[in-house]
Amino acid sequence: MSGTELAEHPCDSAHNAENNASFIPLSDPDITVAELSAVETLLCSSQISSGRITEAFEQAFAVYLGRKHAVAVSSGTIGLLLALKALGIGAGHEVIASPYAFRETAHAISLAGARVVFADVDYWSGTLVPAKVEESITARTRAIVAGNPNGHPAPWAELRTVAQRHRLLLLEDSTEAIGSSYKGELVGRFGDLAVFDFAQPVALSCGEGAMVVTDDMDIALGLRRHRAHRLDERFSVVVASTAPYQAGISDLTAALGLTQLKRLNEILERRRLIEQLYNAHIQSFEGIKPPYVGPAVTDVNWMLYLVQLGTRFSRSGRDAIIDDLRAAQIQSAAYSQPLHLQRHYFDLGYRRGDFLVTEKVADRALALPFHTHLTNKQIAFIVETMKDASINVGAGAAIY
């Protein structure tokens, strides 16, 4: 297989037929007959709710990351919420988080009753700046939630140093970053716990669902107590002291996830080939910053192909490009609507101008379609359409 060719999978013909309709989706799961077979086998069994397949998925995911415990839950937001509950973090506490993300996992902090304290991000990587985190710590701070935005690992060594110096928990939001690695280690191994998500557009996609991983048995037990009661626990006095959220996943979801996990290296390799095609076409496009990879980062497996428009582009100009792409039947998206500018956090006192780097980056971040069913011809069309759209909005070529 060359760097510009992708082997066709058994289910690709259906996608090719769909793509003949010319619409190019932002994401498209890499599903093969292996996934179809796993689901069909389960549908013919006597158990499709959470059971042995979910447990097998949890065990396999823990082994994949080299962590002792993995707990499957219904979403990344719910995963962080249950983690905060298990850690006793709630009313009267503060948790530091990033306002820059595609998924709004940070909402879990408010749902747990704690106060979100945002810190600004690095212009190049979009990750939390450790010095900004440290400036935000108060006597009420209990934890730092740091993400790996769009797959780019955070500066985990520096963040761990800050957390240890102030005796804080370090929680890892890896909902966008499965397969990426920092200093030779997979993301998901750096926090006291880490949360992964399995909804689109991540590489391992099983519709919905998430996984929380940790090496701490007490945290794992707390997560399971808050997640759901098992049938054999319904008469347990200890378990009955906790009202669970009924936030597990079904064996149907787990069957998809387990099969995708077995194929993860293959899926990531196919996505890297798509990245190479994009990189080749994007080189001729002046005025944008292609995806950045930090010096301590070993591997980045992007969730989406994210480009940063030049500083002569405005937020409205970026949105106009999205409209032009939509008119050409290309789905794209603003990667981030900064959390501190959303109504809930506005009510907490946050305003535009509070986090200038986040706002500067978010206003010009444009997420393009990124999945294994894209062809070289489609990618060339996407980039060319984006070039034409940028001319239409009258922006220049400045990047910084």
Explain what you see.
The chain is an alpha/beta fold and 400 residues long. 38% of the residues lie in helices and 14% in strands. It has 15 helices and 14 strands. The protein has helices at 12-19, 33-43, 52-65, 76-86, 107-111, 130-135, 156-165, 217-227, 237-240, 251-262, 264-282, 315-327, 343-346, 356-364, 376-392, and strands at 69-73, 94-97, 115-118, 141-147, 169-173, 181-182, 185-186, 193-197, 210-214, 288-289, 297-299, 305-309, 333-334, 365-368. The strands form three sheets. The chain has a seven-stranded mixed β-sheet with strand order 1-9-8-5-4-2-3, with helices on both faces. A four-stranded antiparallel β-sheet has the order 10-12-14-13. Strand 2 (94-97), helix 5 (107-111) and strand 3 form a beta-alpha-beta unit. Helix 3 runs parallel beside helix 10 (251-262). It is globular. The protein starts with 11 loop residues before the first helix and ends in an 8-residue tail after the last helix. Residues 1-5 and 396-400 have low confidence and may be disordered.
Descriptive labels:
single chain, 400 residues, alpha/beta, 15 helices, 14 strands, globular, disordered N terminus
Give a brief rundown of this model.
The chain has 400 residues and is of the alpha/beta class. It is 38% helix and 14% strand. The radius of gyration is 21 Å and the shape is globular.
Indicate the percent of residues in helices: 25-40%
Strand content: 5-15%
Element pattern in H and E: HHHEHEHEHEHEEEEEHHHHEEEHEHHEH
From the N-terminal CA to the C-terminal CA, the straight-line distance is 37 Å
The description of the largest β-sheet is: 7 strands, mixed
Sheet with most strands: strand arrangement = 1-9-8-5-4-2-3
Summed over residues and divided by their number, the pLDDT gives a mean of 90
Point out poorly predicted stretches.
Answer: 1-5, 396-400
Give the helix/strand class.
Answer: alpha/beta
Global morphology: globular
Question: How many beta strands in the DSSP annotation?
Answer: 14
* Rg, Cα atoms, Å: 21 Å
Q: Treating each run of at least 4 consecutive H or I residues as one helix, how many helices?
A: 15
